[in-house]
Amino acid sequence: MYGICRVIDQFRTTKLGWVLVVHLENVTDDFHEGDILYDLDENRFRIKSIGTMMMLMSDVDEKYRQNYGFIIEALDSEMLHGTILVKEPAPINFIFCNHPLYRRTVDEDYEEEYECAKVRSGCALFSYEDMEEGKLSLYGDEISGLTIYRGWMMKPEMYRKFYELVAERGIILINSPDEYERYHLLPGWYEEFKRETAESVWTKGNDLQDVIGISKELNGPYIVKDYVKSRKHEWYDACYIEDASKKDELVKIVGNFIDRQDDDLVGGVVLRQFVELNGIGNHEKSGMPLSEEYRVFILGGRILVMDDYWRKNGETSFTDKEYKWIEQIASRVRSNFVTVDIARKTDGSLIIMEFGDGQVSGLQQIKPEIMYGALTSRCRVEL
Length: 383
Known about the structure:
This protein has helices spanning 53-56, 111-118, 128-132, 156-167, 177-184, 186-193, 208-214, 235-238, 247-261, 320-331, 368-377, and strands at 4-13, 17-24, 36-38, 44-52, 68-74, 84-86, 93-97, 123-126, 138-140, 145-150, 171-173, 200-202, 222-226, 240-241, 269-273, 279-282, 289-291, 293-299, 302-308, 337-344, 350-357, 381-382. The protein is of the alpha+beta class. It has four domains: 4-86, Elongation Factor Tu (Ef-tu), domain 3; 93-173, no CATH class; 199-273, Dna Ligase, domain 1; 280-382, ATP-grasp fold, B domain (D-amino Acid Aminotransferase, Chain A, domain 1, 2-Layer Sandwich). The chain has a six-stranded antiparallel beta sheet. A five-stranded mixed beta sheet has the order 9-8-7-10-11. The longest helix has 15 residues, at 247-261.
């Protein structure tokens, strides 16, 4: 298996220079002074010194004292892209959900992606249904090393178990369980990006009385969702609240949402201020308003691929200033592979609608051959 470490934190000090706090993904991995490591952009970094953090820095935070630390020298870039470093650059592998009935076949919803991925990389399959029961059943190619999961959403506790079980087989998923949870659940990313997104409040469960409690100071239109998803295709029944100060209306809409989410409700109930967006029409079945919206995939803190969210032939038309705004959003992400959905407001400005873990985010209008070409070559593509 390729030597892989995950960067937990980093410091620059006058005395030591650039220090990385790292977690070794495999305790048998052997790192030495002089080793060359590669980030997700294949920039090179040389290990100048290695030891536990308590050996390298006497004043290090208590939570890092037992972690390994690398003092590094940049050979190509003064910026680390992503939180993964590997001893040998190699193609990224993929692991997909299999078909629930035909176990050695990919799930039919991911067939096109699978066909594009396997041309360039090793592709394993696993049973999502078995994983829900805590059992890992692998099929397809035998893979090891850095791997991207492509499949259905998992609750954070399921992803953590999945991460641990595939790691025992030498498969290291690109996002750690903490990174997955941070961008899969709204409370994980909201505080850092609250100036660029809609005002939001949330509960820690699905108690309707708690929702009434957090709504006391709210007025005007809001939408209701859980930490991950809304029921936007039931726009007028279980999503859109015309005026949150009208408690009868709020209780009705939120109650519908909670009842219909049932066991699929993740985390708690979120109320997000409704923002007027640049409209492009209404959904033909649900009637929900459609807006000028874009999905952006981010790899290693940089834009990988972006395209229109709703329209197959839509154009990603941004000014230089807007593109730089998206780039700085990407640079602040503290995970390796994520998506951010961006929309245009009626005043012409851009707003963050949602983050998501890139492994469980749909491609929307992005063609699989473009996505997988970009992932495997690390190139950046604008559609």
